[in-house]
Each structure stands twice: as structure tokens, then as C-alpha cells.
Amino acid sequence: MRPVRSVARAMLSAIFVANGTQAMVYPDPLVPRAKRVTDQVAPLIGKAPVQMPRDARSLVRFNGAVQTLAGLLLATGRGRRAAAVVLAGSVVPTTLAGHAFWQQRDPRQRRTQRVQFMKNIGMLGGLLLAALDTEGRPSLRYRTGRFMGDQRRSIQRGVRSARRDARIRVKSVSMGRHLPG
Questions:
Q1: What string of DSSP letters covers 120-143?
Q2: Which long-range contacts (CB under 8 A, 24 or more apart) does 169-176 make?
Q3: Who's near 8: CB < 8 A, 6+ residues apart?
Q4: Got the DSSP string for 66-114?
């Protein structure tokens, strides 16, 4: 199953690497559509503890860089789960800015944008699956629960053993025998 996962991740990440690189190099065609979202997000960015750009062109380029880097990480399998989460987070504003089919008046444009919107929703689903994929290994939650159960059983065994030893000592003292130790 490992080769299938590797190929699937590469296939899923290809569009992010291609479109992210395109957005970094040629952001201007994307700026008008992105402005709808970036104008709403800019005040929130201004409150961030680190300096970030607030203009639409810089944010388009930044999003492109994030998509390119996270797409490459997902494709190579390095930090794949974190990369999938980052890409999922970047798909939402990209989809809202780029494929707002509900704002289209022309039926043909509306249909085209709805298809693109649904494509992005499908990619978001794939990214969520990639983010949750443990490659067949038990999840951290399962392993933690298993560890805690093992520790609890170990403590219970120790308590039973201590009680048994105490009963034996009490019995031997009451019979007048002294056990070593």
C-alpha cells in the first residue's frame, strides 16, 4: 500500500506545486479575485505578532509560496500530515476568493465556477484524508491509550503481589515464623 500512498500524495500535491509557483511568479491575474478575501483578512493580519504583508498582491504571492512548499513536502512525504493540514487551510480562502460561483450572473460562468468550487472541495477532502493517514500504524491516541492501559495493569499486578506478600507475612507472623526480608 505504501507505493499507492506515495503516488496518491504526489498526484494530490501536483496542483498545489504548479498553481503555487504560478501565483508566486505571476500574481497579478489573481489579485482582483483575491482582493475580496484579502480585504477582509487584512485587519486580522495587522493584529498578528509578526509582520506580514497586507496587500492583495503580496498575500497572493505568500499563499503561492505556502502552497508550493507544502505541496513539495506532501509529495516527498516529509512532514506529510502537517503539509496536508497547511494545504487544507490554504484551500479555503483560495476557493472562496477564486470560485465564488454564487456571485456570477452569467449561467455559463456560474456553472464553470461551481465545478471549480466542487473540485476544490474534493481536494480539501483528499487533504483531510492525507492529514489523518497514519499509513496503517496505530494513531497516537490509540498508542497512548494502550500505554496507559499497560501501565494500569502493571500497577494492578504490583498491588496484587504486594497484598499477597503482606498476607503471607501476616500469616507467618501469626504462626510464629519469621520470614527473611
A1: HHHHHHHHHHHHH--TTSPPHHHH
A2: none
A3: 130
A4: HHHHHHHHHHHTTTHHHHHHHHHHHHHHHHHHH--GGG--SHHHHHHHH
Q: How far apart are the first and last CA of the chain?
A: 57
Task: Tell me if residue 61 falls in helix, strand or coil.
Answer: helix
Contacts of 68 (CB under 8 A, 6+ apart): 16, 17, 20, 21, 24
| DSSP structural state of residue 156 | H
pLDDT tens sequence across 102-125: 888 999 998 998 999 999 999 999
Question: Measured between alpha carbons, how far is residue 112 from residues 2, 63, 121 in Å?
Answer: 35, 23, 14
